[in-house]
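We emphasize that the prediction below concerns an isolated chain of 298 residues; any contacts that depend on oligomerization or on bound cofactors are therefore not represented. The input was used exactly as deposited, without trimming of termini.
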Amino acid sequence: MKPGRRRAGARQAACNLRPMRVRIAHDTTYRYERPVRALVQALRLTPRDHDGQHVRSWRIEPSVDGRLQPREDALGNILHMFSADRAVEGITVRVTGEVETSDASGVLRGTVERVPDLFYLRETDLTAADTAIAEFAADVAGDVAADPLAALHRLLDGVHREATFDTAPTHVATTAREAFALRRGVCQDLTHIFIAAGRHLGIPARYVSGYFFRSDGVVEQDAGHAWAEAKVPHLGWIGFDPANGISAAESHVRVAIGLDYLGAAPVRGTRQGGGSERLEVKLRVEESRPQFQLQAQD
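Result of the prediction step, given as a C-alpha coordinate string:
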Protein backbone atom coordinates (compact mmCIF):
# COMPACT_ATOMS: atom_id res chain seq x y z
CA MET A 1 0.00 0.00 0.00
CA LYS A 2 2.90 2.34 0.67
CA PRO A 3 4.41 4.08 -2.37
CA GLY A 4 7.74 4.52 -0.62
CA ARG A 5 8.89 6.82 2.14
CA ARG A 6 9.42 10.39 0.96
CA ARG A 7 10.47 13.32 3.09
CA ALA A 8 8.68 16.63 2.69
CA GLY A 9 10.87 19.41 1.38
CA ALA A 10 13.43 17.00 -0.06
CA ARG A 11 14.86 17.60 -3.52
CA GLN A 12 12.81 15.83 -6.17
CA ALA A 13 14.44 13.09 -8.20
CA ALA A 14 14.01 13.27 -11.95
CA CYS A 15 11.95 10.06 -11.94
CA ASN A 16 9.32 11.70 -9.73
CA LEU A 17 8.65 14.63 -12.06
CA ARG A 18 6.45 12.70 -14.49
CA PRO A 19 2.80 13.63 -13.91
CA MET A 20 0.35 10.90 -12.99
CA ARG A 21 -3.25 10.77 -14.15
CA VAL A 22 -5.59 9.35 -11.52
CA ARG A 23 -9.07 8.22 -12.53
CA ILE A 24 -11.72 8.10 -9.81
CA ALA A 25 -15.21 6.56 -9.70
CA HIS A 26 -16.90 7.02 -6.34
CA ASP A 27 -20.48 6.02 -5.44
CA THR A 28 -21.96 6.94 -2.04
CA THR A 29 -25.33 5.27 -1.50
CA TYR A 30 -27.83 5.86 1.30
CA ARG A 31 -30.81 3.50 1.70
CA TYR A 32 -33.56 4.44 4.13
CA GLU A 33 -35.93 2.32 6.15
CA ARG A 34 -38.85 4.51 5.06
CA PRO A 35 -39.21 7.26 2.45
CA VAL A 36 -37.46 10.52 3.36
CA ARG A 37 -39.77 13.52 3.04
CA ALA A 38 -37.04 16.16 2.72
CA LEU A 39 -33.37 15.66 2.01
CA VAL A 40 -30.52 18.21 1.89
CA GLN A 41 -26.89 17.21 1.48
CA ALA A 42 -23.65 19.19 1.59
CA LEU A 43 -21.17 17.61 -0.84
CA ARG A 44 -17.46 18.34 -0.53
CA LEU A 45 -16.54 16.02 -3.34
CA THR A 46 -14.88 18.28 -5.90
CA PRO A 47 -11.11 18.90 -5.98
CA ARG A 48 -9.64 22.15 -7.20
CA ASP A 49 -6.43 22.99 -9.02
CA HIS A 50 -3.18 23.90 -7.33
CA ASP A 51 0.49 23.43 -8.14
CA GLY A 52 0.94 19.69 -8.58
CA GLN A 53 -2.77 18.98 -9.11
CA HIS A 54 -4.85 19.70 -12.20
CA VAL A 55 -8.47 18.58 -12.52
CA ARG A 56 -8.89 17.39 -16.10
CA SER A 57 -12.54 16.37 -15.74
CA TRP A 58 -15.01 16.02 -12.87
CA ARG A 59 -18.72 15.29 -12.55
CA ILE A 60 -21.19 14.87 -9.66
CA GLU A 61 -24.44 13.02 -10.42
CA PRO A 62 -27.13 12.42 -7.76
CA SER A 63 -29.43 9.53 -8.65
CA VAL A 64 -32.64 11.42 -7.83
CA ASP A 65 -34.06 14.64 -9.21
CA GLY A 66 -33.25 17.81 -7.32
CA ARG A 67 -31.24 21.01 -7.25
CA LEU A 68 -27.43 20.87 -7.21
CA GLN A 69 -26.01 24.30 -6.40
CA PRO A 70 -22.23 24.96 -6.43
CA ARG A 71 -20.62 27.39 -4.02
CA GLU A 72 -17.51 27.81 -1.88
CA ASP A 73 -17.36 27.29 1.87
CA ALA A 74 -15.51 29.47 4.40
CA LEU A 75 -12.23 27.57 3.96
CA GLY A 76 -12.26 27.69 0.16
CA ASN A 77 -13.53 24.15 -0.47
CA ILE A 78 -15.81 23.64 -3.45
CA LEU A 79 -19.20 22.82 -1.96
CA HIS A 80 -22.33 21.56 -3.71
CA MET A 81 -25.66 21.78 -1.90
CA PHE A 82 -28.14 19.17 -3.09
CA SER A 83 -31.84 19.14 -2.22
CA ALA A 84 -34.21 16.44 -3.47
CA ASP A 85 -37.39 17.46 -5.29
CA ARG A 86 -39.51 14.63 -3.85
CA ALA A 87 -39.63 11.94 -1.19
CA VAL A 88 -36.92 9.32 -1.73
CA GLU A 89 -36.23 5.80 -0.45
CA GLY A 90 -32.55 6.06 -1.23
CA ILE A 91 -29.95 8.10 -3.09
CA THR A 92 -26.62 7.47 -4.77
CA VAL A 93 -24.20 10.34 -5.30
CA ARG A 94 -21.83 9.35 -8.10
CA VAL A 95 -18.53 11.12 -8.66
CA THR A 96 -16.38 10.47 -11.71
CA GLY A 97 -13.31 12.31 -12.85
CA GLU A 98 -9.66 12.42 -13.75
CA VAL A 99 -6.94 14.40 -12.00
CA GLU A 100 -3.35 14.95 -13.08
CA THR A 101 -0.91 15.04 -10.18
CA SER A 102 2.82 15.41 -9.72
CA ASP A 103 5.16 14.94 -6.77
CA ALA A 104 6.00 18.18 -4.95
CA SER A 105 7.64 16.43 -1.99
CA GLY A 106 4.62 17.24 0.15
CA VAL A 107 4.95 21.02 -0.30
CA LEU A 108 1.73 22.81 -1.28
CA ARG A 109 1.71 25.83 -3.58
CA GLY A 110 -1.16 27.67 -5.22
CA THR A 111 -3.89 26.53 -2.82
CA VAL A 112 -6.88 28.69 -1.93
CA GLU A 113 -6.42 30.07 1.59
CA ARG A 114 -9.40 31.92 3.11
CA VAL A 115 -8.44 32.10 6.81
CA PRO A 116 -5.26 32.98 8.76
CA ASP A 117 -2.89 30.14 9.57
CA LEU A 118 -3.56 30.55 13.30
CA PHE A 119 -7.16 29.44 12.69
CA TYR A 120 -5.78 25.91 12.35
CA LEU A 121 -4.57 25.92 15.94
CA ARG A 122 -8.19 25.71 17.11
CA GLU A 123 -9.04 22.66 19.17
CA THR A 124 -12.12 20.60 18.29
CA ASP A 125 -13.81 17.72 20.06
CA LEU A 126 -12.30 15.27 17.56
CA THR A 127 -8.76 16.69 17.76
CA ALA A 128 -8.31 17.73 21.39
CA ALA A 129 -5.07 16.45 22.91
CA ASP A 130 -5.14 14.79 26.32
CA THR A 131 -2.17 14.18 28.61
CA ALA A 132 -1.18 11.00 26.77
CA ILE A 133 -1.09 12.70 23.36
CA ALA A 134 0.71 15.74 24.78
CA GLU A 135 3.43 13.59 26.35
CA PHE A 136 3.73 11.50 23.18
CA ALA A 137 4.08 14.62 21.01
CA ALA A 138 6.76 16.14 23.20
CA ASP A 139 8.67 12.85 23.37
CA VAL A 140 8.74 11.98 19.66
CA ALA A 141 8.91 15.46 18.09
CA GLY A 142 11.83 16.80 20.08
CA ASP A 143 12.94 20.41 19.61
CA VAL A 144 10.29 21.97 17.38
CA ALA A 145 11.82 25.45 17.43
CA ALA A 146 15.18 24.22 16.13
CA ASP A 147 13.76 22.44 13.09
CA PRO A 148 9.94 22.33 12.71
CA LEU A 149 10.07 20.21 9.55
CA ALA A 150 12.25 17.54 11.15
CA ALA A 151 10.02 17.58 14.23
CA LEU A 152 6.95 16.97 12.07
CA HIS A 153 8.64 14.06 10.32
CA ARG A 154 9.47 12.55 13.70
CA LEU A 155 5.84 13.04 14.70
CA LEU A 156 4.69 11.41 11.46
CA ASP A 157 6.96 8.41 12.08
CA GLY A 158 5.78 8.20 15.69
CA VAL A 159 2.07 8.15 14.88
CA HIS A 160 2.60 5.63 12.09
CA ARG A 161 4.64 3.41 14.42
CA GLU A 162 2.37 3.67 17.48
CA ALA A 163 -1.09 3.40 15.87
CA THR A 164 -2.07 0.38 13.77
CA PHE A 165 -4.44 0.75 10.83
CA ASP A 166 -7.59 -1.16 11.80
CA THR A 167 -11.16 -0.65 10.56
CA ALA A 168 -12.84 -2.51 13.42
CA PRO A 169 -12.63 -0.54 16.69
CA THR A 170 -13.49 3.05 15.65
CA HIS A 171 -16.28 5.01 13.96
CA VAL A 172 -16.77 8.50 12.49
CA ALA A 173 -17.24 10.09 15.93
CA THR A 174 -14.13 8.53 17.52
CA THR A 175 -11.88 11.21 18.98
CA ALA A 176 -8.10 11.47 18.75
CA ARG A 177 -7.93 10.70 22.48
CA GLU A 178 -9.95 7.50 22.08
CA ALA A 179 -8.04 6.32 19.02
CA PHE A 180 -4.67 6.99 20.66
CA ALA A 181 -5.72 5.05 23.75
CA LEU A 182 -6.58 2.11 21.48
CA ARG A 183 -3.40 2.62 19.45
CA ARG A 184 -5.40 1.77 16.33
CA GLY A 185 -7.92 3.17 13.89
CA VAL A 186 -8.50 4.14 10.26
CA CYS A 187 -6.80 6.96 8.33
CA GLN A 188 -9.26 9.47 9.82
CA ASP A 189 -8.23 8.49 13.36
CA LEU A 190 -4.48 8.56 12.70
CA THR A 191 -4.88 11.96 11.07
CA HIS A 192 -6.77 13.28 14.08
CA ILE A 193 -3.98 12.05 16.38
CA PHE A 194 -1.34 13.78 14.23
CA ILE A 195 -3.34 17.03 14.18
CA ALA A 196 -3.95 16.95 17.94
CA ALA A 197 -0.25 16.41 18.61
CA GLY A 198 0.83 19.06 16.11
CA ARG A 199 -1.49 21.72 17.54
CA HIS A 200 -0.34 20.89 21.05
CA LEU A 201 3.19 21.68 19.84
CA GLY A 202 1.99 25.04 18.52
CA ILE A 203 1.97 24.02 14.85
CA PRO A 204 -1.10 24.93 12.75
CA ALA A 205 -2.50 21.68 11.37
CA ARG A 206 -5.57 20.73 9.35
CA TYR A 207 -7.48 17.71 8.08
CA VAL A 208 -7.51 16.77 4.39
CA SER A 209 -10.02 14.49 2.69
CA GLY A 210 -9.34 13.03 -0.72
CA TYR A 211 -8.26 9.93 -2.58
CA PHE A 212 -5.16 7.75 -2.56
CA PHE A 213 -3.75 5.79 -5.48
CA ARG A 214 -2.33 2.51 -4.26
CA SER A 215 0.88 1.37 -5.92
CA ASP A 216 0.23 -2.30 -5.07
CA GLY A 217 -2.33 -2.72 -7.87
CA VAL A 218 -5.44 -2.57 -5.65
CA VAL A 219 -7.97 -0.24 -7.30
CA GLU A 220 -11.21 -1.18 -5.49
CA GLN A 221 -11.27 0.60 -2.12
CA ASP A 222 -13.66 0.71 0.82
CA ALA A 223 -13.52 4.47 1.41
CA GLY A 224 -11.76 7.70 0.54
CA HIS A 225 -8.51 8.70 2.21
CA ALA A 226 -7.49 11.28 4.82
CA TRP A 227 -4.21 12.91 5.79
CA ALA A 228 -2.98 16.09 7.46
CA GLU A 229 -1.31 19.33 6.46
CA ALA A 230 0.92 21.34 8.81
CA LYS A 231 2.32 24.85 8.39
CA VAL A 232 6.11 25.10 8.43
CA PRO A 233 7.67 28.58 8.67
CA HIS A 234 9.47 29.73 5.48
CA LEU A 235 8.28 26.61 3.64
CA GLY A 236 4.48 26.63 3.73
CA TRP A 237 1.84 23.97 4.13
CA ILE A 238 3.16 20.40 4.00
CA GLY A 239 1.15 17.21 3.56
CA PHE A 240 1.71 14.31 5.98
CA ASP A 241 -0.01 10.92 5.65
CA PRO A 242 0.16 9.11 9.03
CA ALA A 243 -1.70 6.03 7.78
CA ASN A 244 1.08 5.35 5.28
CA GLY A 245 3.93 7.08 7.09
CA ILE A 246 4.83 9.27 4.10
CA SER A 247 4.62 12.82 2.84
CA ALA A 248 1.76 13.54 0.46
CA ALA A 249 2.82 12.81 -3.12
CA GLU A 250 1.40 12.34 -6.61
CA SER A 251 -0.55 9.38 -5.22
CA HIS A 252 -2.75 11.80 -3.23
CA VAL A 253 -5.73 13.63 -4.78
CA ARG A 254 -6.59 16.54 -2.48
CA VAL A 255 -10.32 17.40 -2.26
CA ALA A 256 -11.25 19.33 0.92
CA ILE A 257 -9.77 20.68 4.15
CA GLY A 258 -11.15 21.31 7.63
CA LEU A 259 -10.28 21.56 11.29
CA ASP A 260 -11.23 17.87 11.52
CA TYR A 261 -13.23 15.22 9.67
CA LEU A 262 -16.54 17.02 10.15
CA GLY A 263 -15.29 20.10 8.33
CA ALA A 264 -14.04 18.15 5.32
CA ALA A 265 -16.48 15.22 5.21
CA PRO A 266 -17.38 14.25 1.63
CA VAL A 267 -21.11 14.05 2.40
CA ARG A 268 -23.06 15.59 5.29
CA GLY A 269 -26.78 16.22 5.34
CA THR A 270 -30.10 16.55 7.05
CA ARG A 271 -33.39 14.78 6.38
CA GLN A 272 -36.95 14.51 7.61
CA GLY A 273 -38.19 11.00 8.26
CA GLY A 274 -36.73 7.86 6.78
CA GLY A 275 -36.02 5.93 9.97
CA SER A 276 -32.70 4.13 10.03
CA GLU A 277 -30.28 4.35 7.13
CA ARG A 278 -27.68 2.10 5.53
CA LEU A 279 -24.55 3.49 3.89
CA GLU A 280 -22.70 1.79 1.06
CA VAL A 281 -19.53 3.06 -0.60
CA LYS A 282 -18.08 1.89 -3.88
CA LEU A 283 -14.77 3.43 -4.87
CA ARG A 284 -12.32 2.79 -7.67
CA VAL A 285 -9.01 4.68 -7.86
CA GLU A 286 -6.69 3.82 -10.73
CA GLU A 287 -4.07 5.31 -12.98
CA SER A 288 -5.31 6.56 -16.32
CA ARG A 289 -2.74 6.04 -19.01
CA PRO A 290 -2.89 8.41 -22.00
CA GLN A 291 -3.89 6.81 -25.28
CA PHE A 292 -1.57 7.63 -28.15
CA GLN A 293 -2.70 7.28 -31.75
CA LEU A 294 -0.19 6.64 -34.48
CA GLN A 295 -0.72 8.70 -37.60
CA ALA A 296 -0.04 7.22 -40.99
CA GLN A 297 2.61 8.95 -43.08
CA ASP A 298 1.59 10.28 -46.48
